[in-house]
Each structure stands twice: as structure tokens, then as C-alpha cells.
Specification:
Blueprint: E1 4-5, H1 8-24, E2 31-35, H2 41-57, E3 60-64, H3 72-84, E4 90-93, H4 103-109, H5 121-128, H6 137-148, E5 157-161, H7 168-177, E6 181-185, H8 192-197, E7 201-204, E8 222-225, E9 229-230, H9 234-240, H10 245-252, E10 258-259, H11 264-270, E11 273-274, H12 284-302
Parallel strand pairs: 1-11, 2-3, 2-4, 5-6, 5-7, 7-8, 8-11
Antiparallel strand pairs: 9-10
Helix pairs in contact: 1-12, 2-12, 3-4, 6-7, 6-12
The structure holds NADPH dihydro-nicotinamide-adenine-dinucleotide phosphate (NDP).
């Protein structure tokens, strides 16, 4: 049996090219405000990529960079101002926020119509009842990946490992609404491997490098790897990639070596389909952010799209 590698690039390019005519049809370019608090290097890279993709698509973007010392009240004021600005259709507050900031209050302050991350309780509630609303980007990207690779989930048993509000839980709901039979697992699940082996579609949204080895899935299962884990020990690189000289050389040269939640070699050897890390569903998160921004802009600018 040979695995089908589900690569993200083609799906991302398709999604982005479908957005272009929708953007062109709007009265004015969609506007996205990205709030990046402090100087977290990983967040800076994410935000740079988001702003770059906006520019490529003709989406107006504004990057706001308050210092790490900003208070919750000051951030709430900033979000309130962005809510009022007519040319801003989407607001994204990049996480993580500094520990002293009340992240829940900040996310709740974003107007639900501009909540392009889909994290506001109103949008979470709409997802829960399968009403129209802005959906979290990473699980939306997974659904696009499945759909555009003609992987029908109806009646399949999907097991999602991870229950965070931004990835695992919305992922499970989206699969449920697509008529999968869904099991959600987490750190307190008993005999996780046995649960996972029941899956026709197994989703790793854990944040544990290469944890899901072949013991955790049945041969031929569809394996969706959401985890992005940077390896910081040489012995982990050697073990996970079975001594792969290129990976070890990259690590030795100081390059970022990442792995998902699946053991990548087991996934390729025994899986029916597998989203590689990097190059799989991770590429779709920004595409879905762009999609949400265009959807929010259509709803706000034309008032005709009943998406919110
Ligand atoms: P969280 O840390 O918020 O959630 C992790 C989940 O995994 C929790 O529900 C936790 O269970 C569960 N878990 C942890 N350890 C185990 C274990 N040993 N066995 C079973 N379950 C376990 O992470 P996120 O949901 O934010 O992110 C998950 C992964 O996805 C990360 O690697 C992150 O980098 C990646 N990610 C990728 C994105 C992309 O663009 N592709 C975007 C966002 C995240 P419990 O609830 O019991 O603690």
C-alpha cells in the first residue's frame, strides 16, 4: 500500500486564487488589522507571513505593534477603536499575549463580525449549532484539504486527539457537521492507542513531537497532522528521522527542524493518506484567514452575504 501525501501548496493556491475575483468584486479592498503585542520571534514570523499574503491578494492590512507592557485595559481600547473603523473588516490579535493580559477579555472584545480568527464565543457558539459564522482557520483548512482531495468523511470514524478551543474542539465539530462519527481524545483519555486505532481519519492536534507512531493507527487510515513541533535536541532528530543525514546536517547548521504529532516515517509507511509537516495543513491556516477576511468584508461591505 502506498501513502497519498496530502500536500498543502496546491490547495492553498486554489483557495487564494478563488478569493481574487471575490476581492475584485468588492466596493473597496478588504481590510485586516493584525495586533502583535511584544516581540515574540515566532509570532513575528507568523504576522509577517500574514501581512505578505494580504499584500499579494490586494487586501489592505495594518500591523499594530504595542509593547509587551500594554495593559488589558489599553488593549481593550485599541480593539474598541478597530471595531469602529469602517475600513477594517477583520481584526486578529496574535497569540500568545503576555501573561498579565486577560486574553479571554480581549478576544471577547473583538466584534464578532470582524473576528477573522473565529475565536469569539459568539462564533464558537455558531459553530456548535452549525450556523453561519467565522470559523477557526486551522480546522477549516483541514476540511478544505479533505474536500479538495475527495476524501468523503460521511459515516467515517474520525478521532481527534486534542481538545483546545482553537484547534481540537472546532475540528471535532466541523467533522461532526460533515457527518463523521467523532471521538475526541485528550491527555486523560484511557488507552489512547486503542481509541486512535479505531479511526478511519485520525487528527493529531496535540503538540507532542512524533507521538503518534504506527501503534496508534490502523494501516490505511487518513492521518491529518496539525502539530508543529520544533526539535531542539539532536538525539530527537536522529531518533525521529532514523538517522537521516540531511535532517541532522540541517539541525547541526542551526536550521529549524520541525516534526508534527505523527511519527513521519511510520505515517508514510502505514498510512493511507498523510499531511506532511511541514508542507501539509499548516500552509492552509493563512489561506483560511484570508478567506475569513474576504467573507467578513463581503458581509460588511455589501450587506448581502448572510454569513454572520
Ligand atoms: P494545546 O496545548 O492548547 O492543546 C493540546 C491538546 O493536546 C490538549 O487538549 C491536550 O489535552 C492534548 N494532549 C497533550 N498531551 C497529550 C497526550 N500525551 N495524550 C493525549 N492528548 C494530549 O495546543 P493547540 O491545540 O493550540 O495546538 C496543538 C498543536 O497544533 C501544536 O503543535 C500547535 O503548534 C499546532 N498548531 C498548528 C497550527 C497550524 O497552523 N497548523 C495552528 C495552531 C496550532 P488536555 O486538554 O487534557 O490538556
Amino acid at each position: 500500500m502506498s501513502v497519498k501525501l496530502l500536500k498543502g501548496k496546491q490547495v492553498r493556491d486554489q483557495i487564494l486564487s478563488e478569493l481574487r475575483p471575490r476581492i475584485a468584486a468588492l466596493p473597496r479592498p478588504p481590510g485586516l488589522a493584525v495586533v502583535l503585542v511584544g516581540n515574540d520571534p515566532a509570532s513575528e514570523i507568523y504576522v509577517r507571513n500574514k501581512v505578505k499574503t494580504c499584500a499579494e491578494l490586494g487586501i489592505f492590512s495594518q500591523n499594530l505593534t504595542p509593547s509587551a507592557s500594554i495593559t488589558t485595559a489599553e488593549l481593550l481600547t485599541l480593539v474598541g477603536e478597530l471595531n469602529e473603523r469602517p475600513e477594517i473588516d477583520g481584526i486578529l490579535v496574535q497569540s500568545p499575549l503576555p501573561k498579565h493580559v486577560d486574553e479571554g477579555r480581549v478576544l471577547e472584545a473583538i466584534s464578532p463580525e470582524k473576528d477573522v480568527d473565529g475565536f469569539h464565543p459568539i462564533n464558537a457558539g455558531k459553530l456548535s449549532i452549525n450556523a453561519k459564522g467565522l470559523r477557526p482557520c486551522t480546522p477549516s483548512g483541514v476540511m478544505e484539504m479533505l474536500k479538495r482531495n475527495n476524501i468523503d468523511v460521511t459515516g467515517k470514524h474520525a478521532v481527534v486527539v486534542g481538545r483546545s478551543d482553537i484547534v481540537g474542539k472546532p475540528m471535532a465539530l466541523m467533522l461532526l457537521h460533515a457527518n463523521a462519527t467523532v471521538t475526541i481524545c485528550h491527555s486523560k483519555t484511557r488507552d489512547l492507542a486503542a481509541m486512535c486505532r479505531q479511526a478511519d481519519i485520525l487528527v493529531g492536534a496535540i503538540g507532542r513531537p512524533a507521538m503518534l507512531t504506527s501503534e496508534f493507527f490502523k494501516p490505511g487510515a487518513v492521518l491529518i497532522d496539525i502539530g508543529i513541533n520544533r526539535l531542539d535536541k539532536r538525539e530527537d532528530v536522529a531518533r525521529i528521522f532514523r538517522g537521516d543525514a540531511k535532517k541532522l546536517a540541517a539541525f547541526d547548521a542551526g536550521s529549524r527542524v520541525v516534526v508534527g504529532d505523527f511519527d513521519p516515517l511510520d505515517a508514510v509507511e502505514f498510512g493511507g493518506a498523510f499531511t506532511p509537516v511541514p508542507g501539509g495543513v499548516g500552509l492552509l491556516t493563512i489561506a483560511m484567514l484570508m478567506s475569513n477576511t474576504v467573507t467578513a468584508a463581503e458581509a460588511r461591505q455589501t450587506g448581502t452575504v448572510p454569513c454572520l
